[in-house]
Amino acid sequence: MKRIFSFCLLALCAICGVRAESLNSQLPTPNLIKNDSVAIQKVEVVATRASKTTPIAHSDLSRSEIEERNYGEDIPSLLKNLPSVVISSESGMGLGSTSFRVRGTDPTRINVTLNGVPMNDAETHSVYWYDTPDLASSLGSLQLQRGVGTSTAGTGAFGASLNMTSAPMASSFSGRASLSYGSFNTAKQEVALSSGLLGGHWAVEGRLSHLSSDGYVERASSNLSSYTFQAGYYNDKTSVKLLSFGGVAKVYLAYTGLSKEQMETNRRYNPEGEIIIGDEVVGFYDDHTDNYLQTNNQLIVNHSFNERWKLSATAHYTYGNGYYRNYKNDQKLAKYGIAPIEVDGTLVSRTNLLRKKLMSNHFGGVVGSAIYSAERVTVTMGLSASLYDGVHYGEISELREVPDFGTAEYYRNYTSKWDASCFAKVDWLIAKGLNLYADVQYRHITHNISGVNDNFDDTIGAMQRLDIARRYNFLNPKLGLHYSFAKSHSVYASAAVGQKEPTRNNFTDIRKGEYPRAEKMLDIEAGYTFATERLDVAVNLYYMLYRDQLVQTGELSDTGELLSRNVENSYRRGIELSLSGVATKWLTLGGNVTLSQNHIKDYVDYIDGIAFERGRTTIAYSPAVVAGIFVDAHAKGFAARLSTRYVSKQYLTNGEYEDLTLPRYCVSDLDISYTLRTKRVERVRFGVKVGNLFNAKYCASGYGGSWMEGTTLAERGSWACYFPQATISALGNVTVWF
User: Fold this and answer.
1) End-to-end CA distance of the chain, in Å?
2) Alpha helices in 267-353 (DSSP H)
3) Whole-prediction pTM
């Protein structure tokens, strides 16, 4: 595979909402640091970010906080102690295939952007973090917004949004080298260099990383390489920044969980890649892997006309190309559109085989914003437009009982998706301490899928044919008030509408003639904060009312896949509490807790084609309690942080059956570091992170289902699989800044 770098310079007006901000100032205008009469500007997205007076629940991590927590794991590992967040990892180690949920909201409903550019896959709506390895090392800050949040580009935020910015460029020559090593051969090697100012206006920097791990789960290995390159031009009013980042990933598949009986025997076992002859596992296929290359490219232009008007524009292009290979046992050839094959006078209709699924895609567009700031009002206007073009195809090879089979393509389909949006936001200081926030977004989507899919359609006796053309028009208004009083106190309230189009699977896993409807949500929130130099307290109440939420009902599609259907009424409501206090100069204590109810009204569950009216049920993967506490000690270069998080019981299906649950768990981590400074280098940090300090044996995710032995629920049987997480583990790190 070869890397493709192309840059879309389609338009100058578009939306990223980037501002120039001095490295030591928090003003909303581009204040500059002079160095040889030139400014190095810190580029941050404000058009899509919540500020202190925005009536939206959010959490922020600064560059220094990211550096402290970054040992090489995927981005979800940085978020695990934030309010309402639950993370899981298929490898058990937080490297490779990891994901996170917020308020029970799954990853396909969480909008993710970097510098305002969408990161979610246009078809699945997920972010595959191992496609951009070690991205944390290139981040300047991140903000996790809970609920609908502010208007952004890309997939609709339907419960949360993660807004990230790239790290600012250094104003003087500098560099960084980092090494990590720990349990299960988990390792990271990284080097980064920055030129500082060249010729008074230019700067260049780059980073190379390699990460690898055997994984806690057997053979769930990761081999990841990544890069970041930045080049910038700066003067008093304009900055131009070219950013390119990406990587090559090879991850051994581990997406099949274990039964409780299997975990009692060997909780690290990985059934993926099994080679079964007869009834025995005779070995494992070595290349049962996911392989992917992705490059992300952004050209950011930032201009300040005067103290009141700022304009930002970003052109972006992402290229992706990869495949995953499966060894499949005892497969019907008809399932792959292949007729029985005669071998030595015998018809072979099923056998072990090698399956390879490939994809290639292009995603490009523009985002931009104009910001007007006056004494009492700030108006932000934004536009975005993007086009996704992708192809999926699959091959069958190496039939065990057909030595001379060769290779046969069994499906190929094409997708194009046009996504355009515009928004306008107003932040108005009505009176002393009282801010009005209004935000309205219009979004248009055109989604087309055509060709032959990888599912066999029993109704036609052939591979599923796709001919899907859908258009959506969404209007998403938001309105809120924020009132600050008595110096340290503030209250807020807001109401927001969010709408979201179906994913690719929602379209392909259907019954003939049936199509999913778009989902809609009304998010009502209210909160109180108290903030001083020594104590921060926050209380947030939320009520998220869904209309036509897509959930799996237990029904099967025409191709035998689990079918997702729109349920008319469902909701999530809860309270989020957080507290952080400085006990002494060297000790900080804090924690957070979310108490929630997450229900579907009048749910109908289907088991083996039989419908069961279950009434009000709990939405799957939605714990009623998520809590965390931390103790942070720091003095003269020494730092230690002990954190504990608790997640209550979760149901694996929407039917709310007690035998299909993910047990509650409580896990603690310890991070100890020492930083010293010398005359030769800026600083050196030695760190050790101990994960799962008290060796809890827990599972962070799973799946399951039911079958019927009769016609009543008393005759229902069930099965469940779980993803075990690593027991106690350690990861050491040495990082040198110079």
Assistant:
1) 35
2) none
3) 0.92
d(CA 735, CA 177) in angstroms, rounded, equals 6
Coil, helix or strand at residue 507? helix
Distances (CA, A) of 474 to 501, 520, 642: 9, 9, 44
Dihedral angle computed from the Cα positions of residues 705, 707, 713 and 714, in that order, rounded to the nearest 10 degrees: -110
State residue 511's pLDDT score.
85
**pLDDT (tens digit, 9 = 90+) per residue, 58-71?**
999 999 999 988 98
Query: Which two structure tokens, joined as six digits, stand for 516?
Result: 């999913």
Tens-place pLDDT, residues 500-519: 999 999 999 988 888 899 99
Report the SS3 class of residue 505: helix
Residues 166, 206 contacting (CB under 8 angstroms): no
Alpha-carbon distance of 691 to 184, in angstroms, equals: 12
The three-class DSSP label of residue 340 is: coil
Contact 582, 588 (CB under 8 A): yes
Residues with Cβ within 8 Å of 712's Cβ and at least 6 positions away in sequence, in order, are none
Q: For residue 10, what are its two tokens?
A: 């389609």
Contacts of 264-273 with CB under 8 Å at 24 or more apart are 267/697, 267/724, 268/92, 268/216, 268/217, 268/218, 268/724, 269/217, 269/218, 270/217, 270/218, 270/219, 270/220, 272/219, 273/219, 273/327
- The per-residue pLDDT for 37 is 32
User: Which amino acid is it at 658?
Assistant: E
Q: Is 73 exposed, middle or buried (0-12, 13-18, 19+ CB in 10 A)?
A: buried
Helices (H), 496-640: 504-508
SS3 501: coil
Q: For the segment 248-297, what is each residue's pLDDT rounded down to a tens digit? A: 999 999 999 999 999 999 999 999 999 999 999 999 999 999 999 999 99
Determine the average pLDDT of the residues in 19-30: 31
Which residues, listed in sequence order, are joined to residue 382 by a DSSP beta bridge? Answer: 369, 423
CB 361 within 8 A of CB 388: yes
Question: b/e map of 214-244 (b: 16 or more CB within 10 Å)?
Answer: bbbbbbbbbbbbbbbbbbbebeeeebbbebb
Report the mean per-residue pLDDT for the chain.
Answer: 91
More confident residue, 325 or 18: 325
Domain topology for 18-249+288-325+355-737: Maltoporin; Chain A (2.40.170)
Higher pLDDT, 152 or 2: 152
